[in-house]
Amino acid sequence: MATTLAKAEESVEYAARLEHVSKSFAGPGGQQLVLDDISIDVAPGEFVTLLGASGCGKSTLLNLVAGLDKPTVGSIATDGRPSLMFQEHALFPWLTAGKNIELALKLRGVPKNERRDRTEELLELVRLKGAYGKRVHELSGGMRQRAALARALAQESNLLLMDEPFSALDAITRDVLHDELTRIWTETGVSVLFVTHNVREAVRLAQRVILLSSRPGRIAREWTVDIPQPRRIEDAPVAELSLEITDVLRGEIRRHGQH
Ligand SMILES: Nc1ncnc2c1ncn2[C@@H]1O[C@H](COP(=O)(O)OP(=O)(O)O)[C@@H](O)[C@H]1O
Ligand SMILES: [Mg+2]
What we know:
Elements: H1 2-10, E1 16-27, E2 30-42, E3 47-51, H2 58-66, E4 73-78, E5 83-85, H3 97-107, H4 112-125, H5 141-154, E6 159-163, H6 171-188, E7 191-196, H7 199-205, E8 208-212, E9 219-224, H8 236-255
Helix pairs in contact: 3-4, 3-5, 4-5, 7-8
The structure holds adenosine-5'-diphosphate and magnesium ion.
């Protein structure tokens, strides 16, 4: 009995495990190595940000974790099927906010008579109460990302993959959504792998920041962020660590002769 229990616990020791992952694409000059030997463990309930310059391979890596593409070398395992959220909300414009969420519940096999209540709960969680019947074009950019987050949460996965979900929003809206995401992460205990090119955003949100170099994308360095949550993006410790990370990032960019 004890052995079975230990085994059961072992099976959830990570939300995602990437082992020696490399990815190449066929280019005009032959194979182009985009990601080189990436190993990352995301623990259950952990919030990790992947930080790097544009084009360094962040989206490629997230797509691999989502199972949308396969690594050229190495292996990826996740605790169940992850859910995804992008910069563009990707809501269906012909459905209301509520119906978009209900569709995700339906695809997960939630019985019809439970879907409406669950949808209302999710709308409340992302502070969109009353938006059930609103069409996508009636929602502001921030509200659309809230609805997209609710839809991602409707999948009840153990791992939420977020690809620059707030980069198209204005600074004030982004700030509010940082607070909301931190709250929701705390309330739900979901693991998050969050991709961004914004150093302060990475530090504001994460327990751990992983910096990727460019061409090819390699893990350059990693920081544990011990600053207590909820943080503000303008907090002195956030600014201080951001400065340190920016210096390393600049060094990486200089070293590779990019930008
Ligand atoms: N399907 C693909 N075929 C060929 N090259 C690709 C493909 N997907 C991404 N790339 C290349 O991989 C590199 C990293 O892209 P991407 O992962 O989108 O970077 P990031 O998200 O960090 O901005 C880019 O040089 C891009 O052109
Ligand atoms: Mg990208």
